[in-house]
Design brief:
This protein has helices at 3-19, 22-32, 41-52, 57-67, 71-80, 100-104, 107-118, 163-171, and strands at 92-97, 124-125, 131-136, 148-150, 153-155. By secondary structure, the protein is an alpha+beta fold. α1 (3-19) packs across α4 (57-67).
Length: 176
């Protein structure tokens, strides 16, 4: 083997390992030892997202290099499945229920107000890293429609006019 190629690969491998964690690197090595390493791609990406909170470009490139699958295949899988996030999560994860019961009670207007106030669309995070906005299927509390869930807390019967105050209350300093 050409030593220049070997040196280059050693550098690439070291950089890829540095972009991940030792546990994920070991997991990928174990997958590589199995008959069809590529079939473990989703499992690897799950581990990456579990640790980093999302799939960053550097992490996806590292997975491609260490698992020896094309980078296009990794980004294709990451963008195809909606449970993979390609952006960091905000401190507050806002899920606006767009299920039928919430929709008929005006969830689309609530969602529009969140978009307007935050300046982002569904699937995006504000540049200050505070808020991520997502649409959700039925959250299972239809009697409280329209429902918004922020992190683990459910907000019932939300109106568009309540949205600015709700956002303010989230970031307001706790009373001394
Ligand atoms: S449709 Fe929104 S909670 Fe069921």
């Amino acid at each position: 083997m050409n030593p220049a190629t070997t040196d280059n690969w050693a550098q690439v491998e070291a950089a890829a390992q540095a972009a991940l964690t030792p546990e994920i690197v070991s997991f990928i090595a174990a997958c590589r030892a199995k008959p069809h390493p590529e079939s473990h791609l989703i499992a690897v990406l799950h581990r990456v997202q579990e640790h980093f909170g999302y799939l960053g470009q550097a992490q996806m490139d590292a997975v491609a290099q260490l698992l020896r699958v094309p980078a296009a295949r990794v980004s294709g899988v990451a963008t195809f499945y909606h449970y993979f996030r390609l952006q960091p999560r905000g401190r507050f994860m806002i899920n606006v229920c767009m299920g039928t019961a919430c929709y008929v009670k005006g969830a689309d207007r609530v969602a529009a107000r969140f978009r307007e106030e935050l300046g982002i669309d569904f699937g995006q995070t504000t540049t200050d890293g505070q808020f991520s906005l997502h649409d959700a299927a039925c959250l299972g509390t239809c009697g409280l429609a329209p429902v918004v869930m922020i992190n683990d807390k459910v907000y019932p019967r939300v109106t568009p006019d309540q949205v600015p105050g709700l956002l303010e209350s989230l970031t307001a300093p706790a009373p001394a």
